[in-house]
Recover the amino acids of this structure.
């Protein structure tokens, strides 16, 4: 039986279903075809989109459609323990799931043999970095004028012992009491019930998963509003 | 943004313009763009700064870790400057092994800081012969609109000057959640700036935009600092195929101190 | 001075406000533009049940029953008959490979030059690094083919080329060329505007070329187009 969600007070004082302060800005890298910044509290992600552009080597080209190529990484000083520059297994995995999170809303058939490159970098990490990255990338792809069915919204849901919380920070990621911390990252197509990213670590009963997804839905509405505002600000 | 390489006719026109002392944005050949510096790019860094020089943007972070000293400097801390030309900053930057520019930039920053002895490495010993601090300076261009080295050197100075020592716990290991109250030990009033001269035809220019940079045929970067009243060249590297003449180099030696003073004045407003 | 009005203004989207102002508003992908069975989704829009929904980021425009989304950001999408400016990358045995700032390079066959060019003089006619104004005559998944047969096309001599966002090209040209002609008159420059965002200017001297470029960039950078002609005239008056 899960405790009363409303009564829970988190380490930083947030309610269970309360996001950290989110900010977004579009057009931060003039050289890129599209670019954006998204932050959950102290987690700051920037994304740059280049494309459609030529794809090398030639054998990777797809004559039926353009391809999406995502690259996610942490800047070395974005974390307390300096991360050596260069891709890690973790960043390669996140790059791939990010690609799968974004691809369903893109239509690249108009651009055979090309690539759309999405570069995501974390300037400052306080957990939920991949979700911040996807939110930034979604805006950057729209900004780049790529044909897109919808925006993609991403957020993390945590289970701390038996309590469900939205938008996990690092302190909560390290939570050790009771059943410890379970961390789930999701992404969905905005204003829909279609999920494009699902990753989870920890211990959780199957019947709790739908509850976690429901919590994510409301948070994604707020995230969508912020993304929409940041994009429209470019056209003012 | 366009990845198209510079055309013959633009190069010729730029050479004509420079020969007449003119530039697209109205600057004189040796005028620099205005720059802005912000701090706290990352609260996980011991120090970090972002420089915007025109549309060029570079971030630099300082991290420190406890390490073994190098065998030939057992009583000194270590300095390591690295960087990456992440593909986000320019359509020209590709993923994969670093091209020469990406290798050269951090090394230029490193030699200027080392030559000027800006960091008091002898004050970075934790246990002599066994454990010392390594200062990592990491440079990342965010948007390349020319003159990355200079923007990076300004950001490195700002990041170093704002850096705080991390605390050590009772076992002598770094406790990154606490910061000590001490600043990173730096030599008083030493701030080496790396300034690059570019050449097209017979004209020497400073602080080019990316377009101007792509037309140029030779460049030379000087790391320069001031100790008391004396200007000191701490590092120097010439790149690309075209030569510099003795007269041109003498001219640069006259321009450098003034330029250094001008940039230092602007820099002081942000320190 | 060569007559070099670019024919593209007829093919491009009109971004300049007209007296029959069409309703335009900022829209994000997936956002509902209008609801109703009568509306027809055009470029950049699609039907989802009762709604017409945006399929890209830009300005949603209702022109009678047709709903489209005008791209305001993003890279160049080549279309047949576009006049573009490109840079020669290579000279092959039967033509030239041209970088037109798109994902695939474009090919200009030897046969599409306006006069006979001997195989041995190909790189004197068009050499690597030269800028050429050409027309896109086919866009296939294998590549883009160009031709030089047309007014004002060919190798550009002297002057300079610079880049603006391709979406801004229609307003730089203006209604029936009004804006670009204003800039040409005030600076005395020859100007060729490529649909791919590359612009060539050549004047009597470097100062007039700089001025023409600054004027074009001024027009391209503004977010809104109302009163743009007056703003540009004022700018010239001040200079």
């Amino acid at each position: 039986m899960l405790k009363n969600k409303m009564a829970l007070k988190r380490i930083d004082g947030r309610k269970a279903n309360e996001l950290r302060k989110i900010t977004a800005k579009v057009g931060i890298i003039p050289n890129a075809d599209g670019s954006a910044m998204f932050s959950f509290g102290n987690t700051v992600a920037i994304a740059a989109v280049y494309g459609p552009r030529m794809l090398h080597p030639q054998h990777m080209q797809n004559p039926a459609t353009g391809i999406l190529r995502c690259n996610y990484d942490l800047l070395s000083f974005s974390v307390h323990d300096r991360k050596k520059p260069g891709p890690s297994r973790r960043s390669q995995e996140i790059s791939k799931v990010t690609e799968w999170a974004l691809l369903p809303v893109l239509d690249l058939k108009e651009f055979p043999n090309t690539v759309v490159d999405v570069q995501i970098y974390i300037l400052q990490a306080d957990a939920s970095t991949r979700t911040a990255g996807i939110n930034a990338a979604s805006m950057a792809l729209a900004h780049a004028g790529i044909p897109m069915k919808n925006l993609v919204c991403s957020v993390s849901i945590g289970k701390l012992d038996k309590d469900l919380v939205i938008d996990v920070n690092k302190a909560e990621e390290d939570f050790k009491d009771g059943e410890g911390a379970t961390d789930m990252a999701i992404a969905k197509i905005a204003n829909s019930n279609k999920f494009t990213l699902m990753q989870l670590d920890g211990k959780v009963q199957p019947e709790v998963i739908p509850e976690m997804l429901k919590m994510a839905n409301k948070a994604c509405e707020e995230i969508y509003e912020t993304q929409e505002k940041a994009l429209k600000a470019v056209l003012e | 943004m366009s990845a198209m390489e510079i055309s013959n006719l633009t190069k010729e026109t730029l050479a004509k313009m420079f020969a007449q002392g003119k530039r697209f944005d109205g600057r004189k050949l040796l005028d620099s763009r205005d720059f802005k510096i912000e701090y706290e790019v990352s609260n996980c860094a011991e120090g970090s700064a972002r420089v915007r020089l025109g549309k060029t943007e570079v971030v630099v972070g300082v991290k420190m870790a406890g390490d073994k000293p190098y065998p030939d400097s057992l009583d000194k801390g270590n300095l390591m400057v690295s960087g990456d030309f992440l593909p986000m900053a320019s359509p020209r930057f590709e993923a994969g092994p670093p091209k020469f520019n990406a290798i050269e930039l951090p090394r230029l920053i490193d030699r200027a800081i080392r030559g000027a002895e800006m960091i008091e490495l002898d004050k970075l010993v934790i246990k002599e012969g066994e454990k010392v601090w390594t200062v990592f300076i990491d440079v990342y261009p965010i948007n390349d609109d020319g003159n990355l080295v200079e923007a990076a050197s300004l950001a490195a100075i700002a990041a170093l000057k704002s850096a705080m020592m991390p605390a050590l716990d009772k076992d002598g290991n770094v406790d990154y959640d606490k910061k000590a109250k001490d600043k990173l030990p730096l030599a008083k009033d030493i701030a080496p700036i790396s300034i690059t001269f570019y050449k097209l035809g017979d004209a020497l220019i400073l602080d080019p935009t990316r377009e101007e940079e792509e037309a140029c045929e030779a460049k030379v970067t000087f790391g320069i600092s001031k100790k008391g009243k004396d200007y000191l060249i701490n590092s120097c590297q010439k790149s690309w195929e075209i030569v510099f003449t003795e007269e041109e180099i003498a001219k640069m030696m006259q321009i450098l101190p003034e330029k250094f003073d001008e940039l230092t004045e602007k820099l002081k407003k942000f320190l | 001075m060569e007559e070099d009005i670019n024919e593209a203004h007829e093919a491009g989207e009109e971004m300049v406000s007209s007296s029959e102002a069409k309703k335009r508003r900022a829209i994000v992908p997936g956002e509902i533009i209008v609801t109703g069975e009568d509306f027809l989704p055009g470029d950049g829009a699609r039907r989802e049940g009762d709604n017409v929904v945006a399929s890209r980021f830009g300005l949603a425009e209702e022109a009678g029953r047709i709903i489209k989304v005008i791209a305001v950001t993003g890279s160049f999408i080549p279309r047949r008959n576009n006049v573009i400016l490109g840079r020669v990358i290579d000279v092959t045995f039967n033509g030239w490979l041209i970088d037109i700032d798109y994902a695939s390079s474009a090919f200009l066959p030897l046969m599409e030059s306006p006069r006979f060019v001997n195989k041995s003089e190909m790189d004197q006619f068009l050499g690597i690094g030269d800028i050429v104004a050409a027309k896109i005559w086919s866009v296939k998944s294998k590549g883009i083919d160009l031709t030089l047969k047309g007014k004002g096309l060919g190798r550009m001599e002297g002057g300079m080329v610079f880049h603006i966002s391709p979406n801004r090209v229609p307003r730089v040209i203006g209604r029936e060329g009004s804006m670009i002609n204003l800039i040409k008159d005030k600076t005395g420059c020859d100007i060729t505007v490529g649909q791919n965002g590359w612009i060539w200017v050549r004047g009597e001297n470097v100062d007039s070329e700089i001025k023409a470029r600054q004027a074009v960039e001024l027009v391209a950078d503004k977010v809104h187009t109302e009163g743009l002609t007056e703003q540009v005239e004022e700018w010239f008056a001040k200079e």
User: Anything to note?
Assistant: The domain at 10-70 of chain C is CATH 2.40.50.100 (OB fold (Dihydrolipoamide Acetyltransferase, E2P)). The longest strand of chain C covers residues 83-92. The two ends of chain C are 24 Å apart (CA to CA).
